């Protein structure tokens, strides 16, 4: 049977323009969609806009437009943004589409017919921002936790969905399907919520108060509650109930959301489907929130980061790479333009860009720009490089399906690092001086060309433009969408004698005219010049004189992370060493020289700072991946920590 993958994003409210949070979700969906194609799956990728409800009606009024004109205009903004971020969705759904209205009404009627919708009067606390009633228990200091304002008291006769009836079923279902909601912290959150009595869900709004919505098929005085309407989009787009897409792509669906809308997706949606006789989706994948240095992004504080401000400055692939490399899927992350510039310079311009340009420059210089013949591997260095290729492939294939993009990318960069080191160690320029080493030189360059191709293929889901550029210059005529892991991520597929071309730098370094990246999000970016232009204007091609200070870029190669010590124990036969397990978003085993100053049990639960990209080593036979930072003060050793508790995995900048 064909392998199938159906991925959805939330459909975004059209009362605000797309920002980096929307962009992240949609890029992640795009990356997963491309990755699954790459793995030979038949795929379908859906995004769209959520256009009904109070919030939208109010925004239209404020904009001085009728709701339909307003949603048409705003929905278009989303539709126009995604291609600029190289997002290739298969369908874009709008809740105002006639196809959607039909399906919502059909499902309402079905659930009503089986007696799971009833009419009643309800008085409660309602948050207009969230479009829902809140229980006292859910409020924080009497305020909606998402909108930080007090809900209003509202009493209405409405229709209710018997959600409470499905509570036990849902608990059982989640327990029997451990990865139904993932990562685990969000599964636990839903189970914790379900440990309390579940109330029925109010699914209507009287038209006298709000008429911007889908009419209830069994009572035209009411429109449908916006969440009941919105969630159904995921099956409308598949032409529920009879369309061929519904037959093939349901229930393999994978929904992707951030933690803010966990409850509607983790509770309302499965119970609605259960009542309507539809099988639940396969997985709900939940990521954390992008914040800025100022905290939560807020329109009023001017801290909203807009993707279309950044892409023209840094390029779409650098933006996509940064988002996926920087956030540990499931945890919150901080958006900081400085960090973006640093990653671009260090990982893209330096590591990847240099490997690519050095390889092609040497192929041009020593082999007239043509792929040299392959040959027997020369020595241990070649073997090591080949081993790293296999290791990277295995890690990439393990991490991508788990949504662990940062780890998958780290493994690719490990290979890039090793290949750059290989160039330095082998020194092709020395081989070139010896005519007897001509064949060896060919093998070395061939190895490097193969690695560049392998890297291009693996990064294609994240950086499709760069991958295509690299493949083209390597003489490989494959479109990224047609790449297949089995045939393309293989060693030895380049053809001898095929011309390759160096072209310009893949990622010109970005240097700030002013302090890079101290821009307040939402405010005009400071003018940034590409390094090449700066070099040109200086009129010199040489590097500045050596300076005893390290550059910011060098500092940013140091990956410091917040972590929590989960486990600590002495290492047998060692006086000084402890074996620690530190949670930095992933679990790391670290060997630390703390045994003489710290009792293992006192360390568990402590927040620490970990140097995360230290080369792995073995101490007393125990592997250590990272270093816990501490300060010596006389005989005491004090662990570095943060001023306030910070979640694991945050980068220290
Ligand atoms: N319309 C509903 C979703 C209905 S789905 C059936 C909605 N829309 S929204 O415009 O508010 O989008 C919320 C989603 O946007 C989040 O779940 C997430 O995917 C994305 N993000 C919005 N802000 C975000 C961050 N600051 N960080 C990360 N993603 C965030 O809720």
Structure described in brief:
By secondary structure, this protein is α/β, with parallel strands linked by helices.
Describe the protein.
It contains 22 helices and 26 strands. The chain is α/β, with parallel strands linked by helices. Helix 2 packs across helix 3 and helix 15 packs antiparallel against helix 17 (438-459). 5'-O-[(L-methionyl)-sulphamoyl]adenosine binds at residues 10-13, 21-22, 24-25, 50, 230-231, 233, 257-258, 260-261, 289-290, 297.
Bound molecules: 5'-O-[(L-methionyl)-sulphamoyl]adenosine
Mean of residue pLDDT values: 90
| Helix share bin | 40-55%
| CA-CA gap between termini | 48 Å
- Percentage of β-strand residues: 15-25%
Widest sheet, order of strands: 3-2-1-12-13-7
Number of E-state strands:
26
Total count of helical runs of at least 4 residues:
22
Largest sheet: 6 strands, parallel
Structural class: alpha/beta
Q: Which parts are unreliable, with pLDDT below 50 for 5 consecutive residues or more?
A: 513-547
The geometry reads as: globular
Q: What is the C-alpha radius of gyration, as a whole number of Å? A: 28 Å
Give the key terms:
6-stranded parallel sheet; 22 helices; 653 residues; alpha/beta; binds 5'-O-[(L-methionyl)-sulphamoyl]adenosine; globular; single chain; 20% strand; 5-stranded antiparallel sheet
